[in-house]
Specification:
Layout (H helix, E strand, L loop, with lengths): L1 E4 L15 H11 L3 E5 L6 E5 L4 H15 L32 E4 L5 E3 L11 H6 L9 H14 L15 H16 L4 H8 L18 H19 L11 H14 L8 H16 L2 H6 L9 H15 L5 H4 L3 H9 L4 H14 L4 H22 L8 H12 L3 E2 L14 E2 L4 H11 L30 E6 L2 H16 L3 H14 L12 H15 L28 E2 L2 E2 L6 H9 L10 H13 L17 E4 L6 E3 H4 L5 E6 L52 E6 L5 E2 L14 H24 L10 H21 L2 H8 L1
Helix pairs in contact: 4-5, 4-7, 5-7, 6-7, 7-8, 7-9, 8-9, 11-15, 14-15, 15-16, 16-17, 17-26, 18-21, 19-20, 20-22, 22-24
Amino acid sequence: MDVGLLSPMSWSSPESPDSPIPRLIEKALLAHGFGARLLTRTRVPIIKLCEKPGERLRLDLLDARTKWEKGIIDDSNEAVDDVIDDQDAPDGAIAALAIAEIENLSPGGQHQDSQTRSGPVERTYEEQLASLKQADSQSLVAYYHNAKRLLRRLNGRDITISNATDFKDTDYKILDDVANVFINGLHDRDLKRRIQAYPSFSFDITSEPSNRRSLVGAFMMVEGEQLATIWETQAMIEKSIQLRPDSKFVVQTWKDIACKKIFGTEPLTLNRELHLALEHLRKIPLVQLIQLKQDQYESPTQYHTRAIQITNGLCPARPPSNRSFLPEISQHYISGIRDKHVRDEVQKFASCTGVQSLRTLARKHKSIHLATEYERAIEKGLYREEDIPAIKEYMKILQGDFLHQTLGTDKPIVDAFDFVVPATKKTTELVGKIRQLPDPSKLAPNKPRDRYHDSLEFPKNGVGVQCDINFSAHLALQNTLLLRCYSYTDPRVRPMVLFVKHWAKARGINTPYRGTLSSYGYVLMVLHYLVNVAVPFVCPNLQQLAPPDPNLPVEDLEDVTTCKGWNVRFWRDEEEIQRLAHQGHLNQNQESLGSLLRGFFEYYAQNHVMSTTRKRGFDWGRDVLSLRTHGGRLSKQKKGWTGAKTVLQLETGALPDPAKAGVNNEVKSPIDGIGQQAITNTQIGQFNSTEGALVPLSKPKELKEVRHRYLFAIEDPFELEHNVARTVTHNGIVSIRDEFRRAWRIIRTAGKNGQAVENLLEDANAESEKTEGKQFTELLEEIHGPSIFSSSATN
């Protein structure tokens, strides 16, 4: 349930950043024992409200409120980089929204980098440049992110396809300076020297034409040179591994690109070449082996699988019996194990037994690692007291000696379980109990921290009635009226929308704060199909059928033809729509609901000509869904929605201090001649580096950053500059498209043989739990041998 609260008599509108109303209502609700939480990073204020919060939740909400009253900024439970719209998620639980540090590489090869908060800047332009240095233990990726933050603090931006046409000399100046100090600040002096020697990175300003650089290009050059150097300096034993000729060609191609003397004012062209060459360098098996390291949350099984893939790349012609016994590969595998205790135990086992089989070493790694995970889980109290004795007993078995199995002559030694934890009767019974307990790798602290976790999020059950209070969401009310009128145009609209929303929820792709799409977005996708794709159409375009402006005074037209300055005209005569629909005068479409759903999933699953009509499917990369438009589609290029951007807005629920709302004018930059303007209420929300109007060098606490993405584009029916799908990240759009393809595969297969191979509405979480259970069983089989469960069945 959503509740809209309007207060037209207020001296300041509740959605205004300087309105105290949302905070006052939040305080009153908390005082009366309700669970209440004001979300300040939404486009209009929203209070999440529940009837009966648990004691822990109630205390946490009160604590969050107290911190706000004391001026303590706590970003742990709300997004730093983005917001969620009330229109975007009218019926979903809203929590923190976060984005990946690096979303993806665009076709042009440049990063769509994310915006992060920067504190007040007090140093000069030159001092800030000089501060960029790579620490001894700092990774290249972390160092690159520091450089991106510095570039933003200096009013700069990296060049991309979307902004290349309006890139000015001042933009290039700042970008060149940051790219230069990025290379100068590298900790590896030899690496820095080699890169600076390349003509493609020369900073010779006298060259004609002068080379233009990009920060992501400099980053790729550093990484690529690191990989090329690894290949050139690492010599494997020739008896075991020969340096492959194709790898030599890849390295030489990289050198040729880096030695290109002139590329002029087209850094994006160079970036594309660098990106392609870098991808080939990363795939060189020898480079992968030298860099083989277990990631922080990479399981031993995943790590072992990666090592096997590298082995196959190094020795494609060798039989499997020899690949597993390459001593160099096995030693790199052991050296790359992340946990020192586990690494030492595996090394001790290898030294004592002389084993060089990669599979056997990985089995020992998995055994010790599992014991370590159990130990951490017990320390955190994640298992029941009655289960701990059995777990500790099993840990001793895992930490014990591996025994060598005697193999019969009829069994080949290749891939056999030569060393395993013996499957005695006692062990078999114990493993049977362990199998029924949760996998410790799926329990904190043994799994990655959920970047989207929100400690103040309301549980789905047990807290009574829940609702959202939206303040002055005038456009949201217009959207609601439009959707209601569409639901009256045909009796198939409502059940189709509900089915798609249920499907998206079951498959886990309707959570905006996790980078996917809101329920409102799916409603617009359904309506787009029914209005513009189905033949003949199911719903008429209500905005195209808007009657002439009513004969009313201008002041009375608000919320009838305009709202917040946007055109909200549509055919809103609900009684007439229902009458004509009942008489069958609004459409000639006679398809069943199932047939419409089939076409809906096919349309979004592929962009070829559809099987039921001559129309082509949706092009996710180029198209914008536009419900108001005849035909229903615009191009991203036409809308200008081709690259992510970040804008600034005032924070909701805090009184702005005009004295702090300006720019830090103490900072000097090479473009001081261009006036740097103070932030005003009319300016906030639309700041980009353009000639004569620069992004402020710092922002006060009252400002929030709003991230707009256009990986998936759905134009709001009224607010035409608002992308309803702007919360969709790279991983999110991959998940959404995969689910549409899965649904279409299931429907298409069922249509051919009358049977569905999978459950279209299977809960994604339950499916994931089944997969995890199967993986845990396979892990136990790997450690003890496949006979462990057959013995259990026999007993």
